[in-house]
Amino acid sequence: MRDLIVRSYIRPKLPSMRWTDDLDIRFVQVVELLGGERSATPKKILSHMGVRDLTISHVKSHLQMYRKKKEAESIKARRMIHEMKRRQSQQYLQIYERATQFIQNHQRLQLDNTEKITSSLGSSNKSLYQSSRVGFNENRDNDVVVAGGGVIGEEGLSLELTLGHKY
């Protein structure tokens, strides 16, 4: 395994510089003019800023801090977007589950109502059919027979065809 060589820290001879708000705004404008923090280089920034007593080491240091700040903002924005998408997915899932429950309940009610109506009609249709047959057989020669509140004509319509039940 190779021995790693660690470069020792050399303290700069110039004192650290305090970036004023105006100077920072100018720095950001130049960085954006040069295409953003990834494509802007310290030399290009320094030449475009045109500030006296500003050195390349000042610009390098400030650009490094600016890139870290932008990266942190980008990570935070991605996390927020991810969280928003997660919440939106949960909302869609809840809506889907509620819609499914509503449809199932509605189908269950329709089935219950159909069963009630069918059982109710089944017994009344059978008795109506039987009573109409009795009246029809007794009054064969008449034009119209009234049985159980209904009208049966000579055409021979039967309740079997009309109601769709065969007894």
Written overview of the protein:
- The structure is a single chain.
- Helix 2 (42-49) packs across helix 3 (56-138).
- The model is unreliable at 142-156 (pLDDT under 50).
- The protein is rod-shaped and about 115 Å long.
- Strands 1-2 form a two-stranded antiparallel ribbon.
- The longest helix is centred in the middle third of the chain and has 83 residues, at 56-138.
- It is mainly alpha-helical and 167 residues long.
- It is built from four helices and two strands.
Give the tags.
167 residues; 4 helices; 65% helix; two-stranded antiparallel ribbon; mainly alpha; 2 strands
Helix content: 55-70%
Give the count of helical stretches: 4
The major β-sheet equals: 2 strands, antiparallel
Report low-confidence residues grouped into runs of 5 or more. 142-156
Strand order of the largest sheet: 1-2
Mean pLDDT metric: 79
Topology order in helix (H) and strand (E) letters: HHHEEH
| Structural class by helix and strand composition | mainly alpha
How many β-strand stretches? 2
Shape: rod-shaped
Q: C-alpha Rg, in Å?
A: 45 Å
User: What's the N-to-C terminus distance?
Assistant: 97 Å
Strand content: under 5%
